[in-house]
Design a protein that fits this description.
mainly beta, about 45% strand, globular, single chain, 4-stranded antiparallel sheet, 10 strands, Jelly Rolls, 1 helix
Length: about 160
């Protein structure tokens, strides 16, 4: 009986761990990410009185040849304002160990994008992301970025970090 109760409670435990996630979406890639492929996400209407943290999620395999990644990210507001950022994230430690989480050859990295964001404008927000990875000493970017299998985002309610 205890075993049955434990099995029934296990899914609730995993759900509770992600209770701050308001919205998330992942998109599959064919094992590589073309330099011209811009991932576009429509953000649903969110509570304008709350603050949120926005993250990018990348899933990579051992075929990913770099220890970091450069992303070009934009958030377009409903009334036309757009904020664009060039971001760099470490994907592996100095010894080559992936920093992402996961079992087996696929690792997921949860990457900070924006902190304490308020979606105060009424209407649709759009989030876009593309990669801007280059080999050292080369002007042109990597055309087919191998080893990236999924790209996505999540938005979580910001928690108050007061002691």
């Amino acid at each position: 009986m205890r075993k049955l109760i434990g099995i029934l409670l296990l899914p609730m435990l995993f759900t509770a761990c992600d209770s701050q996630i308001v919205v998330s979406e992942m998109r599959d890639l064919p094992g590589n990410w073309h330099k011209d492929e811009v991932m576009e996400f429509q953000i649903p209407a969110l509570d304008s009185l709350k603050q949120y943290n926005v993250f990018f999620h990348l899933r990579n395999t051992n075929d990913y040849p770099f220890n970091n990644i450069f992303l070009i990210a934009s958030m377009e507001f409903p009334h036309g304002k757009t904020i664009t950022d060039t971001l760099e994230y470490r994907m592996a430690a100095a010894d080559g160990t992936w920093l992402g989480k996961g079992i087996g050859s696929v690792k997921e990295s949860k990457l900070w994008y924006k902190e304490d964001v308020t979606f105060f404008e009424e209407g649709e927000y759009k989030l876009t992301v593309s990669h801007a990875v280059r080999n050292n000493g080369e002007v042109h970017g990597v055309t087919q970025l191998e080893g990236i299998t999924e790209v996505g985002y999540s938005i979580e309610e910001a928690t108050n970090h007061q002691p």
